[in-house]
């Protein structure tokens, strides 16, 4: 498991207040929205803030958010390709 | 339940410091939305309806010392003073004071020559009460963006129960960095003036205003008057910031309000919607209006003229609805391009004169709240 | 105004790190525990099993805990009105948002900068599609709550009401919620609401 993926899981649990989850509970390819972790529209916005704050990526279209945040793998790929921090 | 009559009113906004000035602006499709510089926005700024502090202070000087009152207080006090000028005989020991605001003097959290306690909404209530000498303890309502309309409903409910016979209902909110930054983080701010119900709508524009109206259980002498004959509110129970996709709460509110008014959807001549111009709000309203059979009713949103004035909005817009009915005028839904919701709606594209008798005012807000008011023009009855 | 038809069917009090259901204490921690810790412990002990709880601000957490206890023994109609009040609005969360304003603010914090959000959270959890109102008062005002609850009930806008006080300022909280309906022994009146609010376990 790459460092970025672990870092993302840690950040997500903390940022989104997923108190009852452990790192091991989040698989890299599990859907974060809908039936997977059950994240919602405010969580998407929080992740967009996290993208900018921690990785310097400015996302201006929240609709793109759901694709990018589809899973830990998808997030990591997007960040690796676009990060400025 | 008893109905209440909407007597004298006042609007304090970028479009003027009286109802007459505001109506003249709206008739002529003049908008209060202007570009304001702000580094938080990638476009360099945002569009909003902001009252010029100097103009406000100058107007306020006629009734009090501007330095002693916050901007919001000046706005609300000015609105009430307009009403009291027209009603010098009003007995303030028997007139209730009902105040609607979402964030009150929230700008005081940033800079303040005022004490910290001034931020508290009950303090705002005391300031207004003491300025004029109201005797009854103010009722302060803070229920997100339906507050202004909910304050009218609360007035009607208490008047109906005989708790008091008349009330001054006042609502107000500011365009503050507090709220701007929040809506910005929600990606809810449009880069251009908002376009309610439009295909190209991209979010809200904010606005600040104060609105006030004297309400009473007594029918006025004027043969033409406006009453509220039905009202209801209901929560979506869906999400705290996203409206219900099926418009559950708004649907319920409209049905219950119409039932109380004993008026059917077919009899509604005009619908004043909330229409904030976010993707989800306008779509939700379109769904709810279609479910209640209102898709052919002439409708508009006032947000293109004022922006979203939060705790003032439902009250300000109810007052405009009142004058719409009185004057038999339908005001254009400003900045509308073409229909951008999945259900049909009858948007007012140009100013029109038309016989009107019944109107419906709706509002929705964060926390899943919704509200509907049925207004009636009482004619020689 | 006092109406013998309507009763205080049940009530809940949360103060000084103790939760009372009616006059019986159902939960307590040491007063030395911080507010966040108290809320977490109460959540666990009451077996609430609702992960969204952890995303809420303290005011909403207090509302969820109180309503959980209050609703436990009753079938709650989805039309049960919520009539809440406090003195501080959402000031704790307002300050949190204010502090972040120098940089990027958090949407998850901003959404809680309105006192009526607690009504929304309770409505979502318990599927209530009902009348809501949030009043801001100097102090607990039993007359306002009693009068408004009665108006709603008399006008048949609602079959039952949850009314009360839920205040949070400088990490100090004060919660008192009542379920008002036609069932129960205690008549709804401002005097009775005041007595129940002032009740402190010895």
Low-confidence stretches of chain A: none
Mean pLDDT of chain C: 96
CATH architecture assignment of chain C: 3-Layer(aba) Sandwich
Number-wise, the strands of chain C total 8
SSE succession of chain A: HHHH
What can you tell me about this protein's structure?
The complex is a heterotrimer of chains A (85), B (381) and C (202). Chain A is mainly α and 85 residues long. Helix content of chain A is 54%, strand content 0%. Chain A has helices spanning 3-15, 41-55, 62-68, 72-82. In chain A, helix 1 crosses helix 4. Chain A is globular, with a radius of gyration of 12 Å. The mean pLDDT of chain A is 89. Chain B is of the alpha/beta class. Chain B folds into two domains: 4-216, Thiolase/Chalcone synthase (Peroxisomal Thiolase, Chain A, domain 1); 224-379, Thiolase/Chalcone synthase (Peroxisomal Thiolase, Chain A, domain 1, 3-Layer(aba) Sandwich). Chain B has ten helices and 16 strands. An eleven-stranded mixed sheet of chain B has the order 5-4-6-8-1-9-16-15-10-11-13, sandwiched between helices. In chain B, strands 2-3-7 form a three-stranded mixed sheet. A two-stranded antiparallel sheet of chain B has the order 12-14. In chain B, strand 2 and strand 3 (45-49) form a beta hairpin. In chain B, helix 5 packs across helix 10 (313-327). Chain B is globular and about 50 Å long. Chain B starts with a strand and ends with a strand. Chain C is α+β, with helices and mostly antiparallel strands and 202 residues long. Chain C has one domain: Thiolase/Chalcone synthase (Peroxisomal Thiolase, Chain A, domain 1, 3-Layer(aba) Sandwich). Chain C has seven helices and eight strands. In chain C, strands 1, 2, 3, 4, 5, 6, 7 and 8 form an eight-stranded mixed sheet that branches. In chain C, helix 2 crosses helix 5 (117-126) and helix 6 packs across helix 7 (190-198). The mean pLDDT of chain C is 96. At the B-C interface, helix 4, strand 5, helix 5, helix 6 and helix 7 of B face helix 3, helix 5, strand 5 and helix 6 of C.
